[in-house]
Amino acid sequence: MKELRLTKGSDNVVVGEFADVEKPTPKDDQVLIKVVVTGTNPKDWKYIGAGKQPRPFNSGDDIAGIVEAVGPKVLDFKPGDRVAAFHVMHDPHGSFAEYAIAPAHTTFIVPPNISFEEAATIPLVALTSAIGLYQELGLPTPWARGTDPHNPKGRNPIPIVIYGGTTSVGLTALKFARLSGLYPIITIAGGSRDIIEKDNLADVIIDYRNNPNIADEIRKALNGQELKHAFDGFAEPPTSDPIAEVLSTNGGKISGILPYGDGKLPNGHKWKMTYVGSAHKVYPPFPADDVEVDKEFAYVFSRYLTRALEQGKFKPHPHEVLKGGLGGIVEGLNRLREGKVKGSKLVARIGDTEGL
Ligand SMILES: NC(=O)c1ccc[n+]([C@@H]2O[C@H](COP(=O)([O-])OP(=O)(O)OC[C@H]3O[C@@H](n4cnc5c(N)ncnc54)[C@H](OP(=O)(O)O)[C@@H]3O)[C@@H](O)[C@H]2O)c1
């Protein structure tokens, strides 16, 4: 089979080459998937050409396709199933190929109402946001009972601030916050705010651009309520500083998707990094409080995704299909690297690749 391998050229530019490799065989709990559409993520360009990936590498992790074969311990899937999956980051047989491997516990059935293009936008960001909100911040899951005495059906009077509501991770966190019945949901976003407004995913949207009053605007939106939970889907200092100014010093928690400076925030708050790798294994130096527990969580949450998608409760991210299939990935990742992709996920159909 063919796979696309990526590395960095001069000026950090992503470059790629095709390689012929043997079609892998799924072991134990692994699923072999014929990739129909691959998704992309910023990490696909960030970590190539150095560290764990010094040589050209197939760095794709979002798989959407059809089960080709399963390992002997896989009970949930069979050949022919339509699935999406989060591949183990930095391992071989990623999604920029004709076939890819994923563990069964981060694979889920794609219901008939969802296309492969839509499905490819989901696995990595969904597990990132879910681990952030439910494992790191300990918020109630969408299937927990509501605690609002005036409206107990699925409502939780817990305010949350989500920074970066228009990043793929941030928008997905907003969707889960709504499904968990949290309110008010306050988010900080920029020019792509229409993707939040379209599905009414936040109660208050604060603009991050040239805004020195973010802390005051959060205070106003809270209307006297204590803020105990915040999630940062952008996490480049000082994004979380104004949130920490407002966060309760009595048990307030803040987590986000990158290491944040020295981890110290205003008012003595400590940063807690959310890392999606903990759905699979420990990736030093990233923290992993309890990988075994996060693996169980990822299994349960992946099953929930199928149900929420089928019921229309959870919608995929907006997407753009790259021209030329795998041949379009290099151009797409370079656009992502330059910050030119706004409010959208880039996906590629393997069948559009020239010569396949
Ligand atoms: N720790 C983990 O496990 C993990 C997992 C996934 C991703 N990540 C990291 O999370 C980050 C976001 O990834 P992603 O895929 O969600 O990104 P993305 O979808 O590519 O984000 C694009 C959006 O970023 C927004 N943005 C740009 N500058 C901003 C700022 N100063 N404040 C707030 N928003 C800003 C823009 O919003 P507007 O258009 O509204 O301006 C833009 O639409 C990346 O650094 C990625 O490497 C980490």
UniProtKB/TrEMBL annotation:
Instruction: Name the domain of life this protein comes from.
Output: Eukaryota
Q: Where does the secretion signal sit in this chain?
A: none
| Keywords for the protein's UniProt record, in alphabetical order | Oxidoreductase
As one GO molecular function, the record gives: oxidoreductase activity, acting on NAD(P)H
* One Pfam family cited in the UniProt record for this chain: ADH_N
The Enoyl reductase (ER) domain is annotated at 9-348
InterPro entries in UniProt: ADH-like_N (IPR013154), ER (IPR020843), GroES-like_sf (IPR011032), NAD(P)-bd_dom_sf (IPR036291), Trans-enoyl_RdTase-like (IPR047122)
- Keyword Oxidoreductase present in the record's keywords: the answer is yes
Which protein family is named in the record? Answer: Belongs to the zinc-containing alcohol dehydrogenase family.
Q: What is this protein called?
A: Enoyl reductase (ER) domain-containing protein
